[in-house]
Amino acid sequence: SSSDAPHDEL
Amino acid sequence: MNIFRLVGDLCHLASILLLLLKLRASKNASGISLKTQELFLAVFVCRYLDLFTTFYSVYNSVMKVLYIALTALIIHMMRAQSPIRGTYDASQDTFLHVKYAVAPCAALAALTMLVQGFDVRDLFWNFSIYLEAIAIVPQLIVLQRYREVENLTGHYIFFLGAYRALYILNWIYRSFHERGYKHHYVVYFAGIVQTALYVDFFYYYAISKYRGGKFSLPS
């Protein structure tokens, strides 16, 4: 994913 | 994982369970905004698309599925289950037309893609971040209109607000303790806006706990 978004967070 | 995020997630789960308990126990949806619940369902579905693409942990997946499933259950109870269905007062739940919430958030998410580069999953994820920030507004407005707040409804919103406040502490913790942690300013901004929306509620909630009386909002 390009944004390094914290997808591990809920 | 850190203590702030864990307790935050558990507060979030507790809030959803409290709302389910309120609906089951009182068989009554008065004081509850269906719009807020539907916006939250849209938030979860859009944000957790990664359930299909990336596995993080059993904890992470279970919580995501629970948030989606339990919110869908709340909506089902309010829309379709007698006698709860008859107690939902749509005329009090009119503040925000859903399209006026969704359209600006979709536009903002598209704009964010111009900055970050386009990625379908990120588009939905950013949309969910913006939408979550305002999803509680219809619920807060309904509370204002009813004034007298049932205990379980009050606890529901308290735990939801606590979850948001704990996530801010989680970001501060992560930025200090995780090597190479990337700041995500969109998330910080939306998270702070969202938490600020609860400040007024927290104030009156705290006063009513202190006095030990009924929880009601000023006119």
Automatic annotation (TrEMBL), chain B:
| GO annotations of cellular component type | endoplasmic reticulum membrane
GO MF, one example: ER retention sequence binding
Pfam families, A to Z: ER_lumen_recept
Q: Can you tell which superkingdom this protein's organism belongs to?
A: Eukaryota
Q: What is its main location?
A: endoplasmic reticulum
Q: Which key words tag this protein in UniProt?
A: Endoplasmic reticulum, ER-Golgi transport, Membrane, Protein transport, Receptor, Transmembrane, Transmembrane helix, Transport
Q: Which PANTHER family match?
A: ER LUMEN PROTEIN RETAINING RECEPTOR
Q: Which family does it belong to?
A: Belongs to the ERD2 family.
Can you name this protein? Answer: ER lumen protein retaining receptor-domain-containing protein
Q: Which organism is this protein's natural source?
A: Tribonema minus
